[in-house]
Design a protein that fits this description.
Helix content: 40-55%
Number of helices: 4
Strand content: under 5%
Order of helices and strands: HHHH
Number of domains: 1
Radius of gyration: 12 Å
Distance between the termini: 15 Å
Length: 76
């Protein structure tokens, strides 16, 4: 998921993810199957908001915004 726009991209493997990040010139947040399924029906704006406010993807039990958000917010 692009943290700036909230758009979800489907990738096949890690190499495809890195190539897509370079092509888009942004960092993409990896989502689990469950997270992607829950966020998929939402608008990009709502998805971006919920991702920032929700639990962090690293499993720290902090909110994503207070934990790993800065790491993904930085441009390449």
């Amino acid at each position: 998921m692009d943290i700036n726009t909230g758009k979800i991209y489907e990738v096949e493997n890690e190499d495809h993810l890195k190539k897509l990040e370079v092509d888009l010139n942004t960092k993409l947040v990896p989502l689990t199957e469950k997270q992607a399924k829950n966020l998929k029906p939402l608008s990009n704006r709502k998805r971006k908001f919920l991702m920032k406010k929700g639990d962090c993807i690293c499993g720290s039990l902090k909110s994503f915004k207070k934990c790993c958000y800065r790491k993904y917010k930085k441009q390449i």
